[in-house]
Specification:
The complex is a heterodimer of chains A (398) and B (99).
Chain A lengths: L3 E5 L5 E2 L3 E6 L5 H8 L7 E5 L7 H11 L4 E8 L7 H10 L4 E5 H4 L2 H20 L4 E3 L5 E6 L6 H18 L3 E4 L9 H5 L7 H19 L6 H5 L5 H9 L7 E5 L9 E5 L16 H10 L4 E6 L12 E5 L2 H7 L5 E2 L10 H14 L7 H4 L23
Parallel strand pairs in A: 3-4, 3-5, 5-6, 8-9, 8-12, 9-11, 10-11, 12-13, 13-14
Antiparallel strand pairs in A: 1-2, 1-7
Chain B lengths: L10 E2 L7 E4 L8 E4 L2 E4 L9 E3 L8 E4 L2 E6 L8 E2 L4 E2 L10
Antiparallel strand pairs in B: 1-2, 2-5, 3-4, 5-8, 6-7, 7-9
Classes of the chains: A alpha/beta (398), B mainly beta (99).
Pfam family, one (chain B): SAF
Keywords (chain B): Lyase
InterPro entries (chain B): SAF, SAF_UxaA/GarD, UxaA_altronate/galactarate_dh
């Protein structure tokens, strides 16, 4: 196997991408960021940010984790000037991580036009500098991979998700870090899942995390179950959950992560995306992109996205590898898909074959290959208000 | 995955002990299909991913798929019946059907 080549970072992690982020610190700076990024190719310079003007510990934690993600090479921060975001604190965290960072405050530099010009100049200069930096070899054991399913139908749980589970087992075997989520879509599997806890302390924590999600969603009035799920043949959250749960494979669960936390070592982790305490700020994650961004905030270099109905999203920062579970959807939307898991239903492949293909495609992303969503220019991003996770979750065995 | 030879080739029983099967390819309304050795007429067209009862399931009993309960029968469900939101209830969150 050809080696992966990646950009080394000061904290020891390595990036399979070297993105310049242009980040707005309030919605008022979003337009300026879009304009700064506009002349540059889609994948090289990406716009992310936090829209809210009110203070948010979660927003600060997430932006710090994302701006110091291994796939990020430099960050242009754009502030309006009167928002509550602690931009100095964020800029310092980015600088301390060894990355070039520049702060533009629109009100100080003279408005929209001046801010766009200053931003483009800095991004152009910095991008050519960081792309000239040497790459180093990267092992599979250094990869962090997330998995999510979205636009699910009943094929997701039969082909795509079990194939992603096979891929996860292969990666964990190699020493990589694999992260699955989200507890609201694991309702009904908590006891089966708890049996896979790597240690006794983790067992009740897994059950508690799913109970918390069930209560949270009940308070919201709707579960994580969409109309498309039912059209596709899924009838209950338990049924959807068991299908979703198959993505985690068979490995022992080494710990529970919270958004913006990185795993202490390789192994399989559950990402608990539901905040502690009484429901606040609405749904834990408003859409698939919010989940993808939280996986990336935990350091995911790439995300396996299993879809049955046919999602098209990619993501800012890390590539999204689209695994299509439904052969009919694949035929209709093949341009958006990377892996055709639906051929398992037609007898053309086994789950093992598809799982192996997923691992090969993930490794190829570190060898210069791109995903379909990257080629199509997808770089979705969303970040909303949420209660911040406690700093010490206490669910890591090591 | 367990495949019963007494079943139509378009359906898939995912685990031993399951009382529903998953449809792999469209079955048209009025078609007579083989289920657990019985001939059953399917009254409505059912697409990929939908479920059929492969035994008579009394109201209140668990519906079992992947070897685990996915809810319970809200009504008596005869062999060959489409099992979905109209006759299968969650033990957790109720599903809102919006269309």
């Amino acid at each position: 196997m050809t080696a992966m080549m990646a950009w080394p970072r000061k904290d020891g992690r390595k990036g399979i991408r070297n993105v310049v982020l242009v980040a707005y610190l309030v919605e008022c700076a979003h337009h300026v960021c879009k304009q700064i990024a506009r002349p540059f190719p889609d994948g090289d310079v990406q716009v992310v940010g936090f829209s809210g003007c009110f203070p948010s510990d979660y927003g600060q934690d997430m932006m710090a984790a994302l701006c110091t993600h291994p796939n990020v090479g430099a960050v242009q921060l754009v502030s309006l000037g009167c928002e509550n975001f602690k931009k100095g604190q964020l800029a310092e965290a980015i600088r301390a991580s060894g990355r070039p960072v520049n702060v533009i405050t629109i009100q100080d530099v003279g408005g929209t036009g001046a801010a766009i010009k200053a931003g483009r100049d800095w991004v152009q200069q910095t991008q050519s500098e960081i792309m000239a930096l040497p790459k180093v070899e990267m092992e599979v054991s250094e990869l962090v991979i997330g998995t999510i399913c979205g636009g699910s139908d009943a094929t997701s749980g039969i082909t795509g998700n079990p194939a992603a589970g096979v891929a996860f087992d292969m990666l964990v075997q190699e020493g990589a870090t694999c992260i699955f989520e989200e507890t609201g879509e694991l309702i009904g599997c908590e006891h089966v899942m708890a049996d896979r806890a790597a240690n006794a302390d983790l067992r009740p924590a897994i059950i508690a995390s799913v109970d918390k999600a069930a209560k949270y969603y009940a308070a919201m009035g709707y579960g994580s179950f969409s109309n498309g799920n039912a059209t596709g043949g899924l009838s209950t959250i338990e049924e959807k959950s068991l299908g979703a749960y198959a993505k985690s494979g068979q490995s022992k669960i080494a710990g529970i992560l919270r958004p913006a936390q990185t795993a202490p070592s390789g192994g399989l982790y559950l990402l608990d995306v539901v905040p502690d305490g009484p429901p606040k700020y609405g749904y834990p994650n408003i859409n698939d992109t919010a989940e993808i961004i939280e996986l990336i905030s935990c350091g995911a270099h790439a995300v396996i996205f299993v879809t049955g109905r046919g999602s098209v999203v990619g993501s800012a920062i890390s590539p999204v590898l689209k695994v299509c579970a439904n052969p009919e959807t694949y035929t209709r939307m093949s341009g958006d898909m990377d892996v055709n898991a639906g051929r398992v239903l037609e007898g053309g492949a086994t789950l093992q074959d598809v799982g192996t293909e997923i691992v090969e495609r993930l490794v190829s992303l570190g060898q210069g290959q791109k995903t379909a969503s990257e080629d199509l220019g997808h770089a979705e991003f969303v970040l909303t208000y949420k209660s911040a996770a406690p700093k010490e979750p206490g669910c890591h065995p090591n | 995955m367990t495949e019963h030879s007494k079943n139509d080739h378009r359906i898939l029983v995912l685990a031993d002990g399951d009382n529903v099967a998953v449809i792999k390819a469209t079955i048209l309304a009025g078609e007579c299909i083989r289920l657990r050795g019985h001939d059953v007429v399917v009254p409505q067209t059912l697409g990929l991913g939908h479920k059929l009862a492969v035994e008579n399931i009394p109201a209140g009993r668990d519906i079992v798929k992947y070897g685990f309960p996915i809810g319970f029968a809200a009504t008596d469900i005869p062999l060959g019946t489409h099992v979905h939101v109209h006759n299968l209830s969650s033990r957790y969150t109720q599903v809102e059907v919006m269309e």
